[in-house]
Amino acid sequence: MKLEDLAGLRFGYDVVGSTRYDETPEGYHRLECRERIGHGDEVFRRAADALLGWQMQPAAGLPMTATDSPPRIGTNSLGRLGPGLLIGRSPLARIGLPVPCRVVWTVNEPDRIGFAYGSLQGHPEAGEESFVITREPDGIYFTIRAYSRGATWYTRLAGPLARKAQQYAAHRYTKALQRLATT
Which residues form the DUF1990 domain (predicted)? Predict the structure, then answer.
């Protein structure tokens, strides 16, 4: 699968835009991870630049290409889920399962910036994931919210193990963004 192949794909789930809201869609598992990544205007700017420049995922070990930078509604992205996410940046990160997604919403406010993308046909999971950076009185926070369920036989079979892998990926994303914003 190549990035140019994604234009004709449909979403692999039916609750598009769900990460904007607090309710978990029926039949989906929820993940929410919120962590302080630093403080100050410079950290906010660097974190926003890294997130909107698609630097976070590769820094966490998930190779990612996208049709637009910064992301906008309709931007297609293609990652590769494989050994890179487990062992960091390595030549092995280029192999693995395709994870095709499309941006479904964005936010660009003075103290809040980010986006969400949803899984397309061919993604091992069905659902949506959002990444939002906020500037608050006590620091800069990064929040990941996801709703998902298995889209393939092997992710459905994995059950709780797939959810643990998603939590692990969220942790890696957070640490990668924190490194990118503070160094």
Answer: 13-175
CA neighbor of 144 nearest in space, from 121, 114, 178: 114
Q: What is the pLDDT along the chain (183 residues), one digit of tens a residue?
A: 888 989 999 999 999 999 998 888 898 999 999 999 999 999 999 999 999 999 999 999 888 999 999 999 999 999 887 654 444 444 444 457 888 999 999 999 999 999 999 999 888 889 999 999 999 999 999 999 999 887 767 777 777 787 888 888 899 999 999 999 998
CATH number for the domain spanning 31: value is: 3.30.530.20
Is 158 within a domain?
A: yes
Strands of 29-38's sheet in order across: 29-38, 139-150, 125-136, 112-119, 97-109, 76-81, 64-66
In a domain, 3, yes or no: no
DSSP annotation of 61: T
Per-residue tokens: 79:
């990652």
- Output the pTM of the full model: 0.88
Domain count, the chain: 1
Burial class (CB in 10 A: 0-12, 13-18, 19+), 58: middle
Question: Strand runs (DSSP E) across the chain, as ranges?
Answer: 29-38, 64-66, 76-81, 97-109, 112-119, 125-136, 139-150
* Intra-chain end-to-end CA distance of the chain, in Å: 34
